[in-house]
């Protein structure tokens, strides 16, 4: 089996710097951006990679702790494993906003295109990943619906090569994690397993997380065929603590620890199985096909809604990713592929007890079933791309066509009645069920990129691309008030980017400047209608540096300055928000790690993480002041096989908000941070 097959084992790509003490070389390996194998080729786009060594030194209890080190990313933790994401965007929230970022494990989407969940990254095995790769912006024609602001790809280790590890993480407030990795290499085949078990009793009252994750992988090769297969299973059982309310209430230690939603919970299960076959054909042509099966289910107590209803949802489906790479000439490669998915999904929302609160809420939020529907969804997407190498210039162009169809069946009475057909007071019930229907969405996604390698290790690039996302099922079929149908189009984002990346002496760097405009943005207006007339502008500059200051001191920096603004006319509380900053969109975010190699087997790292201030309402009236957090890590390589890691997070015991928000019903509300916490880890490898 030729070595250039290795990057094609999985349907993803990455850009990484080669480990080189002299920093005199840079190596680029790509399959995320282009789904083709390419060594030492500078690509006209921005990809950040968190390596296995970085992830091991961070030992993240939540993926947010790792993604702090990626410029342009802002993950706001909720409680337990919950979060809200941002990638070259404001922090995304709402029924379908999660469709703005595509999340993958081993190149396979965690969720079907129309059924995203805002917290879905907890279904990826990031705790024991080999790498996490972040493609920023709609940089590729190969990713369709949901890859508007970018792609986050969690890559699990190839355990079929033999070896393994056992590990234990033990931390403050009852945190424990057990880890196991083992495999066996039989030459032309191999098998392995990757497991983590987490038990976290939590800082706040009546909160806890129990989570189990497992990856199994098999490899087989024969002549020009390489077959790799894998599966992932995750299970989450979480008792959730919700917001606390009151201006800067997170500064009150007693209040920050309280849980005013002790009955809230989330139970989620996910299973994915996949198999990739890669054939080396004549003339170095390559054919790669991945088949996958995906099944998820979740029970979710919506403690933040009146009446605290229970949501139950599930999705079952299968899909295919295919690629044929043909060398048209020695300097021209053509890539042709077809992606497809079929998904069966169901959703129910019901309320067991009468609503508490005002007469209006009691009358309009009834006890009983609110929604009950099934959906059969079909997606197919052919694509083509061309890479043309002209001396130091690389031109890439691609086009993707995607068609998505929902076949929606309402299992209740249509309209805004109670489940028995009786009317609610005050003009009707809160929840409105559209009649059974079929909805289709078709989109074209072009991409053009140009890069210039002006010397061996440094590259200038520019790209122009379009991203889109079809409306999510929740936006189409979970309506409210007087709305009976949602006539929605796909969200569209047009993006332009300039950048430079490479190595200069002891400095590795990447800098990018982007400008994105979005239209047809989907949101819920002041009448509680799901509408499609929003628009926004996103401008930013990102910088990532890795600098060897001395033989023993190294600096790693990731920072962004960005401005995300509304460009549509919408009047809220008498104010037109056109031109305002989008709420929950800090303009500056930065992370700095200073690492000291004290001894050959011992190192210390001091981390500074900054989140700038941001508005919590579109009117730009209420604001969170931001925060700066210091953390400290120490690593000790006790023997060749045994490593010990200690961490102190929030070293100065700062009181801050993981997430700040504001509603007209509650006023200021927050997910409070933990106080200073510590964790000790031990890992034995063989």
UniProtKB/TrEMBL annotation:
Entry's family note: Belongs to the TonB-dependent receptor family.
Signal sequence region: 1-18
The UniProt keyword set, sorted, is: Cell outer membrane, Ion transport, Iron, Iron transport, Membrane, Signal, TonB box, Transmembrane, Transmembrane beta strand, Transport
Q: Where does it reside?
A: Cell outer membrane
Name it: Ligand-gated channel protein
Q: Which Pfam families match?
A: Plug (PF07715), TonB_dep_Rec_b-barrel (PF00593)
Q: Which InterPro entries match?
A: Beta-barrel_TonB, Beta-barrel_TonB_sf, Plug_dom, Plug_dom_sf, TonB-dep_rcpt-like
- Report the residue ranges that make up the TonB-dependent receptor plug domain in this protein: 44-151
Q: Entry's SUPFAM superfamilies?
A: Porins (SSF56935)
Boundaries of every TonB-dependent receptor-like beta-barrel domain copy: 172-651
What the entry lists under CDD domains is as follows:
ligand_gated_channel (cd01347)
Q: Does the keyword Signal apply?
A: yes
Topology class, membrane: Multi-pass membrane protein
Where does the source fall among the domains of life?
Bacteria
